[in-house]
Amino acid sequence: MAILNASLRSLLPMEMIKGKRSVSDHTNEAMNYITYLKNKIQELSVRRNELKNLSNLSVVVQPCCDGVQILVTTNVNEGLLLSEVLEILLREGLDVVHCFSSRENERLIYSIQSKGNDLGCLDLSGLQQKLNDLILSSRYI
Which positions ≥6 away from 90 have C-beta within 8 Å? Predict the structure, then answer.
């Protein structure tokens, strides 16, 4: 029994057993540590799922013909407001020519083609960042 208790004690963080000498104290601290680890696993699991969902979001902005093509991919349950995407494009001086959406499994794919008067002055990476920010902010509403 003493060997098993020593083994248990060696698995606990030092700050949990500091100043405690009895077997019952060590066992109690082991139960507290197990509860702490369970809670930590649950927290990390939730965080992992959030990060997995983030990786499912994408915005691609690329030049095409005499305009810009934007591909936005989100999860079906994300609640992206297409009107907000279109508003950003209008503020950037782009006119929407075509807008298509399709659903594939649990994902929504938007394809937007737009034209602009002065595409040479358009910052494509800045536009992509604005759309990414919009998608990320819409997740937490």
Answer: 96
